[in-house]
Design goal:
Blueprint: H1 11-15, H2 19-27, H3 31-56, E1 66-69, E2 75-77, H4 78-94, E3 98-101, E4 108-109, E5 115-123, E6 134-142, E7 159-165, E8 169-174, E9 180-184, E10 191-195, E11 206-208, H5 219-229, E12 241-243, H6 248-258, E13 261-264, E14 277-278, H7 279-292, E15 296-298, E16 315-316, E17 318-321, H8 323-335
Length: about 350
Protein backbone atom coordinates (compact mmCIF):
# COMPACT_ATOMS: atom_id res chain seq x y z
CA UNK A 1 0.00 0.00 0.00
CA UNK A 2 1.39 3.38 -0.94
CA UNK A 3 1.99 6.04 1.71
CA UNK A 4 -0.88 8.49 2.18
CA UNK A 5 -0.53 11.91 0.66
CA UNK A 6 0.59 14.64 3.05
CA UNK A 7 -2.13 17.08 3.96
CA UNK A 8 -0.39 20.36 4.59
CA UNK A 9 2.19 19.00 7.05
CA UNK A 10 4.45 21.99 6.49
CA UNK A 11 1.78 24.66 6.92
CA UNK A 12 2.39 25.09 10.64
CA UNK A 13 6.14 25.51 10.10
CA UNK A 14 5.61 28.07 7.35
CA UNK A 15 3.15 30.08 9.44
CA UNK A 16 4.39 29.81 13.02
CA UNK A 17 7.57 27.73 13.21
CA UNK A 18 8.60 25.33 15.91
CA UNK A 19 8.53 25.60 19.69
CA UNK A 20 12.31 25.26 19.75
CA UNK A 21 12.65 28.25 17.42
CA UNK A 22 10.17 30.28 19.47
CA UNK A 23 11.95 29.58 22.75
CA UNK A 24 15.35 30.31 21.27
CA UNK A 25 14.18 33.69 19.97
CA UNK A 26 12.36 34.46 23.24
CA UNK A 27 15.35 33.61 25.42
CA UNK A 28 18.01 35.30 23.31
CA UNK A 29 21.09 36.02 25.43
CA UNK A 30 19.14 36.24 28.69
CA UNK A 31 20.57 33.56 30.99
CA UNK A 32 17.43 33.37 33.12
CA UNK A 33 15.17 32.91 30.10
CA UNK A 34 17.56 30.32 28.74
CA UNK A 35 17.03 28.36 31.94
CA UNK A 36 13.25 28.39 31.45
CA UNK A 37 13.61 27.39 27.79
CA UNK A 38 15.91 24.50 28.70
CA UNK A 39 13.38 23.06 31.13
CA UNK A 40 10.50 23.37 28.67
CA UNK A 41 12.58 21.66 26.00
CA UNK A 42 13.41 18.98 28.56
CA UNK A 43 9.71 18.36 29.16
CA UNK A 44 9.18 18.04 25.41
CA UNK A 45 12.07 15.60 25.04
CA UNK A 46 10.54 13.43 27.75
CA UNK A 47 7.07 13.81 26.23
CA UNK A 48 8.32 12.49 22.91
CA UNK A 49 9.62 9.34 24.56
CA UNK A 50 6.51 9.00 26.71
CA UNK A 51 4.16 9.37 23.74
CA UNK A 52 5.80 6.41 22.04
CA UNK A 53 5.35 4.28 25.16
CA UNK A 54 1.70 5.27 25.53
CA UNK A 55 1.06 4.53 21.85
CA UNK A 56 2.57 1.05 22.25
CA UNK A 57 -0.03 0.20 24.90
CA UNK A 58 0.09 -3.40 26.12
CA UNK A 59 2.42 -4.44 23.26
CA UNK A 60 5.35 -3.70 25.58
CA UNK A 61 3.86 -4.96 28.83
CA UNK A 62 0.90 -3.64 30.80
CA UNK A 63 1.36 0.10 31.47
CA UNK A 64 -1.72 0.09 33.73
CA UNK A 65 -0.35 -2.58 36.08
CA UNK A 66 -0.78 -1.49 39.70
CA UNK A 67 2.54 -1.18 41.54
CA UNK A 68 1.74 0.83 44.68
CA UNK A 69 0.26 4.12 45.87
CA UNK A 70 1.52 7.68 46.14
CA UNK A 71 1.61 10.03 49.11
CA UNK A 72 -2.07 10.94 48.68
CA UNK A 73 -3.22 7.35 48.59
CA UNK A 74 -3.83 7.31 44.83
CA UNK A 75 -3.05 4.04 43.07
CA UNK A 76 0.20 4.11 41.11
CA UNK A 77 0.46 2.29 37.82
CA UNK A 78 3.62 1.09 36.15
CA UNK A 79 3.52 4.00 33.73
CA UNK A 80 3.17 6.49 36.62
CA UNK A 81 6.49 5.35 38.08
CA UNK A 82 8.23 5.03 34.72
CA UNK A 83 7.17 8.51 33.62
CA UNK A 84 8.23 9.99 36.98
CA UNK A 85 11.70 8.49 36.62
CA UNK A 86 11.92 9.66 33.01
CA UNK A 87 11.07 13.27 33.84
CA UNK A 88 13.45 13.37 36.81
CA UNK A 89 16.32 12.15 34.65
CA UNK A 90 15.66 14.58 31.80
CA UNK A 91 14.87 17.61 33.98
CA UNK A 92 18.09 16.99 35.90
CA UNK A 93 20.00 17.11 32.60
CA UNK A 94 18.08 20.27 31.64
CA UNK A 95 19.24 22.13 34.75
CA UNK A 96 16.42 21.87 37.27
CA UNK A 97 17.34 22.68 40.87
CA UNK A 98 14.45 20.74 42.41
CA UNK A 99 11.57 18.68 41.03
CA UNK A 100 8.30 18.11 42.85
CA UNK A 101 6.36 15.21 41.33
CA UNK A 102 2.99 13.76 42.23
CA UNK A 103 4.69 10.38 42.35
CA UNK A 104 7.24 11.22 45.08
CA UNK A 105 6.67 12.08 48.72
CA UNK A 106 9.26 14.87 48.80
CA UNK A 107 10.94 17.11 46.21
CA UNK A 108 13.90 15.56 44.40
CA UNK A 109 17.05 17.61 45.05
CA UNK A 110 19.11 18.24 41.90
CA UNK A 111 22.11 20.39 40.99
CA UNK A 112 20.55 23.29 39.05
CA UNK A 113 20.50 26.81 40.45
CA UNK A 114 17.85 28.97 38.81
CA UNK A 115 14.53 27.13 38.48
CA UNK A 116 12.50 24.36 40.08
CA UNK A 117 9.88 22.27 38.31
CA UNK A 118 6.62 20.88 39.65
CA UNK A 119 5.09 18.14 37.56
CA UNK A 120 2.27 15.64 37.31
CA UNK A 121 3.98 13.11 35.00
CA UNK A 122 0.78 11.30 33.97
CA UNK A 123 -2.45 13.14 34.67
CA UNK A 124 -5.50 10.93 34.19
CA UNK A 125 -3.55 7.69 34.39
CA UNK A 126 -6.86 5.92 35.05
CA UNK A 127 -7.39 6.35 31.31
CA UNK A 128 -4.22 4.44 30.38
CA UNK A 129 -5.05 1.59 28.05
CA UNK A 130 -8.54 2.90 27.28
CA UNK A 131 -7.68 5.18 24.36
CA UNK A 132 -8.85 8.35 26.10
CA UNK A 133 -6.58 11.34 26.82
CA UNK A 134 -3.84 11.39 29.41
CA UNK A 135 -1.31 14.13 29.86
CA UNK A 136 1.59 15.81 31.62
CA UNK A 137 1.23 19.09 33.52
CA UNK A 138 4.26 21.15 34.47
CA UNK A 139 5.14 24.35 36.29
CA UNK A 140 8.47 26.22 36.29
CA UNK A 141 9.22 28.29 39.39
CA UNK A 142 12.15 30.58 40.25
CA UNK A 143 14.46 28.87 42.71
CA UNK A 144 16.20 30.26 45.78
CA UNK A 145 18.09 28.43 48.50
CA UNK A 146 16.38 30.62 51.11
CA UNK A 147 12.79 29.47 50.56
CA UNK A 148 10.84 26.49 49.32
CA UNK A 149 9.75 27.29 45.74
CA UNK A 150 6.84 24.86 45.96
CA UNK A 151 5.22 26.69 48.88
CA UNK A 152 5.03 30.02 47.04
CA UNK A 153 1.78 31.31 45.50
CA UNK A 154 1.18 30.31 41.90
CA UNK A 155 1.55 33.87 40.63
CA UNK A 156 5.32 33.43 41.02
CA UNK A 157 5.47 30.85 38.24
CA UNK A 158 7.83 31.72 35.41
CA UNK A 159 6.17 29.36 32.93
CA UNK A 160 3.67 26.53 32.80
CA UNK A 161 2.19 24.10 30.35
CA UNK A 162 0.91 20.64 29.53
CA UNK A 163 1.26 17.89 26.97
CA UNK A 164 -1.91 16.03 25.98
CA UNK A 165 -1.52 12.50 24.64
CA UNK A 166 -4.67 11.91 22.60
CA UNK A 167 -5.26 11.29 18.91
CA UNK A 168 -2.51 13.89 18.52
CA UNK A 169 0.26 14.87 20.93
CA UNK A 170 -0.48 18.49 21.78
CA UNK A 171 1.36 21.09 23.81
CA UNK A 172 -0.04 24.20 25.46
CA UNK A 173 2.38 26.50 27.25
CA UNK A 174 3.10 30.05 28.32
CA UNK A 175 6.22 31.94 29.39
CA UNK A 176 4.06 34.83 30.54
CA UNK A 177 3.48 36.28 27.08
CA UNK A 178 0.22 34.56 26.12
CA UNK A 179 -0.60 30.91 25.45
CA UNK A 180 0.74 29.00 22.46
CA UNK A 181 -0.54 25.65 21.20
CA UNK A 182 1.64 23.21 19.30
CA UNK A 183 1.34 19.69 17.91
CA UNK A 184 4.08 17.08 17.69
CA UNK A 185 4.87 16.09 14.11
CA UNK A 186 4.32 12.31 14.03
CA UNK A 187 7.34 11.65 11.82
CA UNK A 188 9.97 14.07 13.17
CA UNK A 189 8.87 14.42 16.80
CA UNK A 190 9.19 18.20 16.46
CA UNK A 191 6.58 20.38 18.15
CA UNK A 192 5.16 22.83 15.60
CA UNK A 193 3.16 25.83 16.76
CA UNK A 194 -0.41 25.80 15.45
CA UNK A 195 -1.90 28.73 17.35
CA UNK A 196 -0.54 31.83 19.07
CA UNK A 197 -2.12 34.13 21.63
CA UNK A 198 -4.96 31.76 22.46
CA UNK A 199 -8.03 33.50 23.88
CA UNK A 200 -10.79 31.58 25.63
CA UNK A 201 -14.34 32.77 24.84
CA UNK A 202 -15.77 34.57 27.87
CA UNK A 203 -19.15 32.82 27.60
CA UNK A 204 -19.88 29.14 27.28
CA UNK A 205 -22.62 26.51 27.37
CA UNK A 206 -20.29 23.56 28.07
CA UNK A 207 -19.72 22.10 31.53
CA UNK A 208 -17.16 19.47 32.54
CA UNK A 209 -17.73 17.78 35.88
CA UNK A 210 -18.15 14.31 37.34
CA UNK A 211 -21.92 13.95 37.45
CA UNK A 212 -21.68 10.90 39.72
CA UNK A 213 -20.62 13.26 42.52
CA UNK A 214 -23.67 15.47 42.14
CA UNK A 215 -25.40 14.17 45.25
CA UNK A 216 -22.35 14.96 47.38
CA UNK A 217 -22.10 18.61 46.34
CA UNK A 218 -22.81 21.44 48.73
CA UNK A 219 -26.09 23.36 48.18
CA UNK A 220 -24.64 26.32 46.28
CA UNK A 221 -23.00 24.13 43.62
CA UNK A 222 -26.13 21.98 43.42
CA UNK A 223 -28.22 25.08 42.80
CA UNK A 224 -25.83 26.24 40.06
CA UNK A 225 -26.11 22.87 38.32
CA UNK A 226 -29.86 22.76 38.78
CA UNK A 227 -30.15 26.10 36.97
CA UNK A 228 -27.89 24.87 34.15
CA UNK A 229 -29.70 21.55 33.75
CA UNK A 230 -33.05 23.35 33.51
CA UNK A 231 -31.87 24.55 30.09
CA UNK A 232 -33.87 26.98 27.99
CA UNK A 233 -36.86 26.69 30.29
CA UNK A 234 -34.82 27.67 33.36
CA UNK A 235 -33.29 30.87 34.68
CA UNK A 236 -30.21 30.52 32.41
CA UNK A 237 -32.36 30.61 29.29
CA UNK A 238 -30.21 28.20 27.27
CA UNK A 239 -29.23 24.54 27.07
CA UNK A 240 -25.86 23.26 28.31
CA UNK A 241 -23.70 20.39 27.08
CA UNK A 242 -22.00 18.14 29.64
CA UNK A 243 -18.52 16.71 29.14
CA UNK A 244 -16.19 14.70 31.39
CA UNK A 245 -12.94 13.03 30.29
CA UNK A 246 -11.48 12.01 33.64
CA UNK A 247 -8.30 13.89 32.72
CA UNK A 248 -7.73 17.52 33.70
CA UNK A 249 -5.26 17.88 30.82
CA UNK A 250 -7.86 16.74 28.30
CA UNK A 251 -10.41 19.18 29.73
CA UNK A 252 -7.83 21.98 29.72
CA UNK A 253 -6.87 21.40 26.10
CA UNK A 254 -10.50 21.40 24.95
CA UNK A 255 -11.31 24.55 26.94
CA UNK A 256 -8.33 26.40 25.47
CA UNK A 257 -9.55 25.44 21.99
CA UNK A 258 -13.28 26.16 22.35
CA UNK A 259 -14.13 27.48 25.80
CA UNK A 260 -16.10 25.80 28.55
CA UNK A 261 -15.91 25.47 32.31
CA UNK A 262 -14.49 22.64 34.41
CA UNK A 263 -15.00 22.14 38.10
CA UNK A 264 -13.95 19.66 40.75
CA UNK A 265 -15.51 21.22 43.82
CA UNK A 266 -15.16 20.51 47.51
CA UNK A 267 -17.96 18.22 48.63
CA UNK A 268 -19.39 16.40 51.63
CA UNK A 269 -17.39 13.17 51.37
CA UNK A 270 -14.58 12.52 53.85
CA UNK A 271 -11.30 13.45 52.19
CA UNK A 272 -12.94 15.77 49.67
CA UNK A 273 -13.42 18.76 51.96
CA UNK A 274 -10.63 20.57 50.11
CA UNK A 275 -11.34 19.26 46.66
CA UNK A 276 -9.26 16.61 44.99
CA UNK A 277 -6.74 18.21 42.63
CA UNK A 278 -3.26 19.20 43.79
CA UNK A 279 -2.57 22.91 44.04
CA UNK A 280 1.13 23.06 43.19
CA UNK A 281 1.45 20.86 40.09
CA UNK A 282 -2.12 20.71 38.77
CA UNK A 283 -4.18 23.78 39.71
CA UNK A 284 -1.34 26.34 39.60
CA UNK A 285 -0.12 25.60 36.06
CA UNK A 286 -3.71 25.35 34.83
CA UNK A 287 -4.49 28.71 36.44
CA UNK A 288 -1.39 30.30 34.90
CA UNK A 289 -2.55 29.25 31.44
CA UNK A 290 -6.12 30.36 32.11
CA UNK A 291 -5.04 33.86 33.14
CA UNK A 292 -2.75 34.13 30.12
CA UNK A 293 -5.61 33.14 27.79
CA UNK A 294 -8.26 35.45 29.23
CA UNK A 295 -9.96 32.79 31.30
CA UNK A 296 -10.28 32.34 35.05
CA UNK A 297 -9.25 29.75 37.64
CA UNK A 298 -10.48 29.80 41.23
CA UNK A 299 -11.14 27.47 44.15
CA UNK A 300 -14.74 28.56 43.75
CA UNK A 301 -14.24 32.08 45.07
CA UNK A 302 -10.49 32.79 45.47
CA UNK A 303 -8.07 33.08 42.54
CA UNK A 304 -5.88 29.96 42.43
CA UNK A 305 -2.75 32.02 41.73
CA UNK A 306 -3.23 33.89 45.03
CA UNK A 307 -3.40 30.76 47.18
CA UNK A 308 -0.40 29.85 49.33
CA UNK A 309 0.26 26.08 49.43
CA UNK A 310 0.17 24.57 52.91
CA UNK A 311 2.19 21.52 51.84
CA UNK A 312 3.80 20.08 48.74
CA UNK A 313 0.83 17.86 47.90
CA UNK A 314 -2.04 19.94 49.29
CA UNK A 315 -5.36 19.77 47.49
CA UNK A 316 -7.72 22.47 46.33
CA UNK A 317 -11.16 22.79 44.78
CA UNK A 318 -10.75 23.96 41.19
CA UNK A 319 -13.02 25.85 38.80
CA UNK A 320 -11.51 27.02 35.52
CA UNK A 321 -12.44 28.10 32.03
CA UNK A 322 -14.55 30.81 30.43
CA UNK A 323 -14.41 33.90 32.61
CA UNK A 324 -18.12 34.74 32.74
CA UNK A 325 -19.08 31.24 33.89
CA UNK A 326 -16.29 30.98 36.48
CA UNK A 327 -17.37 34.34 37.90
CA UNK A 328 -21.00 33.19 37.95
CA UNK A 329 -20.09 30.09 39.96
CA UNK A 330 -18.31 32.37 42.45
CA UNK A 331 -21.47 34.44 42.78
CA UNK A 332 -23.49 31.30 43.62
CA UNK A 333 -20.95 30.34 46.29
CA UNK A 334 -20.77 33.87 47.68
CA UNK A 335 -24.54 33.92 48.01
CA UNK A 336 -24.40 30.88 50.28
CA UNK A 337 -20.98 31.05 51.98
CA UNK A 338 -21.79 28.50 54.69
CA UNK A 339 -22.32 25.76 52.12
CA UNK A 340 -18.68 25.38 51.07
Amino acid sequence: MSAPATLGNDDARVQYGSVDEYLSAWAGEDVSRQGVAALINGVLDAAGLLSARIAAGSLEGDPARLVGSNTGGDAQKAIDIASHELFIEILASAGAARVLSEEADAPVMLNGQRFAAAIDPIDGSGNVGLGTPVGTIFSIIPFSETEDPFLAPGKRQAAAGYVSFGNTVDLGFSVGEGVLLATMHPQTGEFLIVKRQVQIPRDTSELAYNASNHRHLHPAMSLYLQDCLAGKEGTRGRDFNMRWLGSAVGELHRILLRGGVFFYAADKRPGYENGRLRLVYEANPIAFLMEQAGGRATDGTTAILDKIPTSHHCRTPLVFGSATEVDLIASYLDSNPTSE
